[in-house]
Each structure stands twice: as structure tokens, then as C-alpha cells.
Hints:
single chain, 82% helix
Amino acid sequence: xxxxxxxxxxxxxxxxxxxxxxxxxxxxxxxxxxxxxxxxxxxxxxxxxxxxxxxxxxxxxxxxxxxxxxxxxxxxxxxxxxxxxxxxxxxxxxxxxxxxxxxxxxxxxxxxxxxxxxxxxxxxxxxxxxxxxxxxxxxxxxxxxxxxxxxxxxxxxxxxxxxxxxxxxxxxxxxxxxxxxxxxxxxxxxxxxxxxxxxxxxxxxxxxxxxxxxxxxxxxxxxxxxxxxxxxxxxxxxxxxxxxxxxxxx
Length: 250
């Protein structure tokens, strides 16, 4: 376990020194703020219309505002996640440092696990730092903390899969740009698949990311959804490991 943690810390140190890593974090916050302002404006207008027509109180803040905002944030992560990991393994090949890692007494699985932990930790920090947006809303209206925790757990699981997918794409290509394009196209394809069939129990819908993140964003946590995230993340990590083993044998 110690070599894996050492690789993860090495990956984190590299990311902390890269301006691009901080640029992605700033971009995520800017987009998040713009999306929240747009949704907040629409939410306030909708509540005012409902009050005028029915005299009812404000609808659930989480369902009407927080969950849609986090859903849009999840779409942004489909690009941010691959961008964070596009050079994780491809850069090692391009710089010629991969043979040095192969010379160490470490399996390809541990190398992938270290890269995954480093990239996922950074992505969790970036995504988690956006929690101040709903906390700011809590100053003006009650926020369901349980639903909010479930929604951020969904983003954490989505981030894990996107990092694993990005690592697999990085392992199968020698250029970071190609890895980014491949991972983004795959992630968006998997997202859209869940929207093709309106029946969430259909086999095609169950293959899509959007199907398994939708209810969790609303605060509904199912063991089947969590198991799906873990299984698919593991599958991408195995694919990256197999590719590294092929490079080592080649």
C-alpha cells in the first residue's frame, strides 16, 4: 500500500505545480456560479408565479434548485474529469519516464491505483469546494443537508468513474489531447445512453451514467446505483492496468 500512496502523493504534487490544474478549478467555479445565478433567477420567478396563482409557499429548495444545479455541474464534470487525467499516463510515455516506473518493483495495478488516487483526490477537492454555493443558499432558505450529502456522494462516485475512464483513455493513447477527446466522447456517450429510453429500468438506460446519478442528486440512494458506480469504475481501472501490462511486456 505504501508504494501506491507514494505514487498518489507524487501525482498530487505534480498537479499542485501545474497552472492548468488550478485553471480547471477556477473554470469549474466560474461555470458553477453562472449556472446557479441562472437557475436561482428562474426559481425565484417560478415561486412568485406559484404564489400569485395558488397562494402556496415555496417548493422544496433542493428539488427545485440545488438538484438541477448539481445536475448541470455533473455535465461539466464530463469534461473536467478527462481534462484532469488526460496526461496521467500519456505524459509518462511522451516523456519517456514510463520505463523508469516499470523498473521499480511495482505491478501495473499499483501504478494505476496510485495515479487514480492522486487524480481522484484532486478532483474531490475541486468538486467539494463548490459546496459553499448551497451553503450560501442556506443563509436565505432551509437546505436539506441529507439530500445535499447524497447529491455530493453522487458527484464523488461520478468523479471516480470519470477519473478511471480518463486513465484508461490515457493508457490507450500516447498524446494527452487524444486521451482527452477519447475520454470526453466516451463519457458523453455513456451519459446520453441513459436518456434514450424514458424507462429507467430498461437495460439500455441502466448502462447510462445519467440513470444512476439522477436519483442520488435528489437524495435517493440505492445500493444498486452505488454498486454500478463501483463496478464500472473498477472495469476502467482494469482496462488501464491491462494496457500498462501490455506496454511492459512489449
